[in-house]
Amino acid sequence: MVQYYLKSAVQGDVTVKVMKGAYVVAETKGPNAAGINRVMWTMRWTPMYLGPAQQQGRGFGGGFGQPPAPPPYPTFGGTMAADPGEYTVVVTAGGKTFTKKTQILEDVWFDRVY
Q1: pLDDT tier at 11 (50, 70, 90 boundaries)?
Q2: Residue 73: its pLDDT value, please?
Q3: Positive/negative CA dihedral, 26, 32, 33, 36
Q4: Beta partners for 44?
Q5: Is the pLDDT of residue 98 over 50?
Q6: CA torsion sign, 71 to 97 to 45 to 20?
Q7: Model pLDDT for residues 49-81, shown as the tens digit of each residue
Q8: β-strands 75-76, 35-41: how paired?
Q9: Between the CA atoms of 82, 5, 10 and 72, what dihedral angle is there, to the nearest 10 degrees?
Q10: Which of 9, 17, 18, 46 gets the highest tally of CB atoms within 10 A of its CB?
Q11: What is the pLDDT of residue 56?
Q12: Which domains does the chain have, with CATH numbers?
């Protein structure tokens, strides 16, 4: 969850970026209202390169039944799980940029079977 506080509403877009080093892993536009605003990063990213094999074909259909209910907060992210490590969250609002470092830790219990 990325939370940021705006003292007053700002003109224009609020952008939220998640970066790993110099690379943008995920990016979205957030609410520009006064007060505490929230967007949810799914801790996923989208690969930027599609090889020739992926560009030619079409995907298979999917999604059985009804679509899921929308989440309570705007979400952003991609299809690949983010690797453990240090990330930087960059929020740009009203011409000002704010950064904060965060970490994704490895889930050592993820593939354990008991």
Answers
A1: very high
A2: 63
A3: positive
A4: 81
A5: yes
A6: negative
A7: 544 544 444 444 455 566 666 666 667 788 888
A8: parallel
A9: 60
A10: 18
A11: 45
A12: 2-46+71-104 (2.60.40)
- CA-nearest of 15, 23, 14 to 80 is 23
Two structure tokens written together for 58: 């079409």
Give the sheet arrangement for strand 35-41, strand by strand.
2-6, 35-41, 75-76
Q: Comparing C-alpha atoms, which of 11, 20, 62 is closest to residue 45?
A: 20
Residues 6+ apart with CB under 8 A from 75: 39, 40, 41, 42
Q: Which amino acid is at 57?
A: G
In the chain, DSSP finds a helix count (H) and a strand count (E) of 1, 9
Mean pLDDT for the stretch of residues 92-100: 95
